[in-house]
Every structure is written in structure tokens, then in C-alpha cells.
Amino acid sequence: METQRIMEFPHRNMDKRPKKRPRLTWDMPQPVPPTKVLPTIYCGQEFANGTVPNYAYSSIYYKGVPSNGSPPWRPDDKDGHFVFAIGENLTPRYRIMSKMGEGTFGQVLECLDSERKEIVAIKVVRSIHKYREASMIEIDVLQKLAKHDIDGTRCVQIRNWFDYRNHICIVFEKLGPSLYDFLRKNSYRSFPTDLAREFGRQLLESVAFMHDLRLIHTDLKPENILLVSSEYIKVPDYKFLSRSMKDGSYFKNLPKSSAIKLIDFGSTTFEHQDHTYVVSTRHYRAPEVILGLGWNYPCDMWSVGCILVELCSGDALFQTHENLEHLAMMERVLGPLPQHMIIRAE
């Protein structure tokens, strides 16, 4: 069987899941007065070989883009995203190779670390006060996880962090695609039961690891579970052989390695913090969150259950964007809501 790296496939009508609506108002950026940004300040903290004190230095600017210099300063876009060009440097240490993704928090860039000679993923947070504050909490969580995850097998590993032109930048190890991306590029064909079971085992161990540290992820979903490797193999898809091409060959992709890691700890909370606001992406949101009853560790376990169903079926279990419909779908699957939850929600 041929081993390849995941590529984009020209599937049509691929994304069958409902499009997610914009985040609710509690998660929208608050307007902040414009501030003058000093683009020459750089500070960082290294975690790989012990803590390094913060430091600052002045960047040298050129009309062109030098091999080891900083690019010309540009204003951020209207949403506070960092504006860049492929091939430029993100500080003299990191050269931008490609854009890997974008979300409400900012962008993820694939970069070459010239000091460690490795490819890394850098999360460049929007230059908005709310997201800068959240990113500093995420760094605190990542540092705590790295301290206890000695083998680095449960959660994505932080390499470094720094503040560049008013953007908090978090440097991570480079991993493979998310389980959602893998499903999407595989036309939402489900994973084999044995493989889904192995994903489930690792996912439960990782969540238990976080809970033992008194941390609640609150945003578990296939998008936030990454394969460690991008390599995959092609295998016959026997469910589709009867409808296959004339030569009888119809294949689906399976990851070569089943190793996974959790990512995105921007919404992670400690046990002692406020647990009354809305958390989790809609499809994976627990009933107690929808009913406004407050939440705790079980909200992560509800998300795990929804994820496992999706990995085995290829479809999200609760495909809705409305609270009442969501609760009705839960009752259709699991029966009536417990009476004690209904009484507390009245």
C-alpha cells in the first residue's frame, strides 16, 4: 500500500455539517481604544530547556526583507489580525512558510525555527486586549501541562512564546491534521471501529490527565484533536465497492499512526474559576450548559461522547444551532431530561 502525505482532494459537496454561526456576544471582541504599538519590542520565554528570563532588543528595518531581519511594519487588518507575507520573518528566529489556519483567536502560521532547525506552528493572537489576556492564560495552562506531561504524549507541546508587534505568539510543535479535517477530506467516511476505539482511549486518558490537574478543557471537538503524523494509507472501502468505478477500486484514507494530541487550551479553566458562562462549540455542548445550570468536569465527558459517535458515524450527533431543538434532539437520543435538571432550570 502506498504511503502518502495528506493533500487537498477535489471532493464536491464535502462539508455536509451545518455552518457554525458567529460566536455569541459574550465571546465577541470588545471595542478598545487604539493604542500606539512599539513594533521593536520582543520578549520571549523558552520552555524546552528550562526557563529563560524575558529579554528585549531592537529590530533592524530595511526597505526589502533581509534574510534574518524583521519585515516592514504594517498595520493590522480591521479585525486585529497580523498582516504578513510568506517568506518573511516573524522575529529573526522564525521564517513564515505558510498559513495553516485562522479562527476567532487569530492565525496559525507554519514557520521554520532557525535555531532548532525544525518546522513549528505559531499561534499569532489578534491584537485585541481580550484575546491577549486569554492567550496569557493559555500559556499558563500550557506550561502547567508541559510540566506534568513528561513524555509529551497527551497535549500539544509549547516550545516558546513572545510578544511581537502587540501580538502574543505561541510556538508549538508541528502536528498533523485534526480528526475533523481528516474526516472532511475523506468525504466524511467514518473511521474503522478499532481505530475509533484507540482514539477514544487516548482521548479519555488525556481528559483524565487534565482533570487530575484540576483543569477543564471546555472546548473538546474533532477540530481540537490532532493526529501526530500527517501520513496516511489508502485501503479499499468495501461499503462502496458495489458503486465503485469500472475497475472495482474505491479507496478511503486511514491515518498511518493512531497517535493523537489535544490542542487549543484558550478556553481551559481551573476548577476554582467561574463556571456559569456558556462554553463549548454548539455540537458538543452539554445540557447543563444550555440550561444555564453551571458546569464542571462532566461537560468535557459529554463532549467526548459526542466526538466518539461522530468518529464512528462520520456525522455530528446533534446538528443544530438552536437551544430548544438541541435539547429535543438530546431527549430523542437519551430519553427525557432528568427531573432535577428541569426543576433547577425553571
From TrEMBL:
The chain positions of domain Protein kinase read: 94-346
Q: Name one GO molecular function term.
A: ATP binding
Q: Where is this region: Disordered?
A: 1-30
**Pfam family membership, one:** Pkinase
Q: Which domain of life is it from?
A: Eukaryota
Q: Sorted alphabetically, which keywords does the UniProt record give?
A: ATP-binding, Kinase, Nucleotide-binding, Serine/threonine-protein kinase, Transferase
> Which PANTHER family does this UniProt record tie to the protein?
SERINE/THREONINE-PROTEIN KINASE DOA-RELATED, SERINE_THREONINE-PROTEIN KINASE AFC1
Q: What is this protein called?
A: Protein kinase domain-containing protein
Record organism: Ilex paraguariensis
